[in-house]
Hints:
The chain is mainly beta and 278 residues long. It is 0% helix and 39% strand.
Amino acid sequence: MVSTAASSSAGIPRTPLAGVEIRIEDAEGVRRVALPPAVPGRRYAVGKEQGCDVVVDGLYASRRHCEIWLERGSWWVADAGSTNGLRIERGANVLGRTGGDAGAASPKALEIVAGARIVLSAHAEGSPAQYPRLALDTKPDAAIHTTPLAPGASLRATPSTPILVGRKPEFTISARMAGGERTVDLRPGALPVSVGRSRSQSLVVDWAHEGVSGQHLAISALDEGGVTVEVYGDNGVTVSGKQYPPGAHLRWKPGEAMTLGRTIGQEPECRLVLTRAD
Length: 278
């Protein structure tokens, strides 16, 4: 919600609603990604992972680093559980920081004002090849190549877990986290189901769990014996004492507990349990 975001735009004009391009500076140089006409509330994922809407190439960028979206006539950006967070700069001024080591008091979302750029690090200085930069632009420069948004890239609204009418769930995930317990049902017709700190996930993990990534894992298939898990989070998962790194595929069986990421300082454990539905 915009009410939780920090506005840094006093007296600064907003970015127009349509015809937006993203100017990217990263290890590949300078290029533009043209976005289709923006629909308020739909989110674009930015990161190194090929499944992101906007893919960047940076040494310290996370697989799913942040999300940008249009809301109430302004563009906003939120960290998606990245390692290094991000900041908004305008000229020589830093307008805001969030995620990573920005501090617990930092806002969860920042407004992208006209003339500002997103740097994929809350504090660190370095080259775009290390920390990519992105800027929204409505006046393309003909000297720079413009790349359309990749075919098939999704325009993400914050989804809810789909409901398959008339069928009971096959399995249920019970999650114990800082804010209490939550559950999500797994049905054959409602996959994949994703878990992470980003608000676009099917099961949203509390932001207090800093070791959990924006999209930490996805349930991609299920059968009588359990479910198939694809691990995306930078800190992996642990099941029955065995650790699985990012990129791992594993079988998760009913009754097994899974711990997400790692605990940092006094951070509570984020623990999931898979159970078979009655």
